[in-house]
Amino acid sequence: MSPEDSNSRSTPEIDRRAALGALTAGAAGIALAASPAAGQEGSGDGPGARLGWDENLGEYVLSPLPYAYDALEPHIDARTMQIHHDRHHAGYVRGLNRALAELAKIRAGESGPIQHWSRQLSFHGGGHINHTLFWEGMAPESEGGGGEPTGALAEAIGASFGSFDAFSTHFQAASRAVEGSGWGWLAFDPVSRRLLVLQMENQQKLLTTGMVPLLGVDVWEHAYYLQYQNRRGDYVAAFMNVINWPVIEARYAKASG
Ligand code: MN3
User: Fold this and answer.
1) How far, in Å, is the centroid of ligand 1 from the Cα of 92?
2) pLDDT tens readout for residues 152-200
């Protein structure tokens, strides 16, 4: 099956365009996190729509990758990208829809384990948001992936970390050192208006409330073990070559503006 077949099956083109809005949103994740049922309101141009909310289906749908499965080679291999997007991310979308449906039944009066489904909502909703930001935060090297940011983000990285190299070293070390499964993030703190490098366990644990996610690297084993086996550090170093800095700059502009 070609990537096009797989992707067109997932989402109508209108949602593809809507999902691209999430590129510059950053705050989309905050919106869902702050209001877990926001998607149910189904606003056509709200954060739910940007995250693949399908008004007609009344549930989230998996948006296609913004590039072919093999577009990030040699840094991330096609097989990993295909399994990661089509199986793992799809699973988070299913889990998110299931949790929302079960919680709706409980609200309607059915008895049910509300703690379990609340945790499922947090885990799968977080997974959906994180992966959406992750895919759009990367670009093939041939299309500008990698290198260094420019403009206001470059200045902010210099002010917050001393230099781009110091940021890169910190970001890679923190990502490499996540205990178990999780993520490394570059985030904007709207209180101090500075940038922070954060670790995230699983899909959301340890993420400081209020931080706006800008750049995330998935360090779950499913993100790298086919190509890199246990060498997480090699994978994180390779990830630096496919960062879509213009997208991260746009997220920073939106978060800090
Ligand atoms: Mn993943």
Assistant:
1) 9
2) 999 999 999 999 999 999 999 999 999 999 999 999 999 999 999 999 9
220 CA to centre of ligand 1 in angstroms? 6
Q: Compute φ and ψ for 118, nearest 5 degrees.
A: -65, -40
pTM exceeding 0.70: yes
Question: Ligand 1: distance of its center to the CA of 223 in Å?
Answer: 6
Q: Measuring CA to CA, which residue among 131, 88, 137 is closest to residue 242?
A: 137
Low-confidence stretches of the chain (pLDDT < 70) are 1-50
* Secondary structure in 3-state letters for the chain: CCHHHHHHHHCCHHHHHHHHHHHHCCHHHHHHHHCCCHHHHCCCCCHHHHCCEECCCCEECCCCCCCCCCCCCCCCCHHHHHHHHHHHHHHHHHHHHHHHHHHHHHHCCCCCCHHHHHHHHHHHHHHHHHHHHHHHCECCHHHCCCCCCCHHHHHHHHHHHCCHHHHHHHHHHHHHCCCCCEEEEEEEECCCCEEEEEEEECCCECCCCCCEEEEEEECCHHHCHHHHCCCHHHHHHHHHHHECHHHHHHHHHHHHC
**Ligand 1 center to residue 78 CA distance, Å?**
14
Rounded to the nearest angstrom, the distance between the alpha carbon of 217 and the centre of ligand 1 is: 9
Contacts of 211 (CB under 8 A, 6+ apart): 185, 187, 188, 189, 196, 198
Cα 102 to ligand 1 centroid, rounded to whole Å: 24
Q: How far apart are CA 242 and CA 198, in angstroms?
A: 20
